[in-house]
């Protein structure tokens, strides 16, 4: 079977789909490789803990599954921990993706980072721009 049971489960029953009206950080990103887009909403408390997150995507099944898993992995975590979430970690949590679909998982990582960046910008919190630069130079998205 091409897709793991976990991928199929998150694709057919995605967690945290939707929108948060009064989100503290919103990130919208597009996948350079396929043109799919994703929007991520974060609710963040004063301790910088992500208390809620939701996503919407015009993306393929793998993008839906990876975003669903990504929201599950960052919920309840500190924003600093969410920033460390790599697309690789999400793919591992899903028991893998076919090689040609790995680029889809980058969308989830980018959307989380973009939403955290928005939160930092809105609150005047200093950050190292390098953290956000890494995503742009992803090996899958650069060609
Ligand atoms: Fe575009 Fe998967 S084909 S995100």
Could you please describe the fold and organization of this structure?
45% of the residues lie in helices and 16% in strands. It contains six helices and three strands. The chain has helices at 5-12, 61-74, 79-83, 87-93, 102-123, 129-136, and strands at residues 25-30, 37-44, 50-58. It has a three-stranded antiparallel β-sheet. The longest helix has 22 residues, at 102-123. The structure holds FE2/S2 (inorganic) cluster. FE2/S2 (inorganic) cluster binds next to helix 2 and helix 5.
The helix/strand class is alpha+beta
> Ranges with pLDDT <50 over ≥5 residues?
none
Strand content: 15-25%
Share of helical residues: 40-55%
Average predicted confidence as pLDDT: 91
| Total beta-strand segments | 3
Features:
45% helix; alpha+beta; 143 residues; binds FE2/S2 (inorganic) cluster; 16% strand; single chain
Topology (elements, then pairings):
Elements: H1 5-12, E1 25-30, E2 37-44, E3 50-58, H2 61-74, H3 79-83, H4 87-93, H5 102-123, H6 129-136
Antiparallel strand pairs: 1-2, 2-3
Helix pairs in contact: 1-2, 2-4, 2-5, 4-5
Bound molecules: FE2/S2 (inorganic) cluster.
Short description:
By secondary structure, the protein is an alpha+beta fold. The protein has helices at 5-12, 61-74, 79-83, 87-93, 102-123, 129-136, and strands spanning 25-30, 37-44, 50-58.
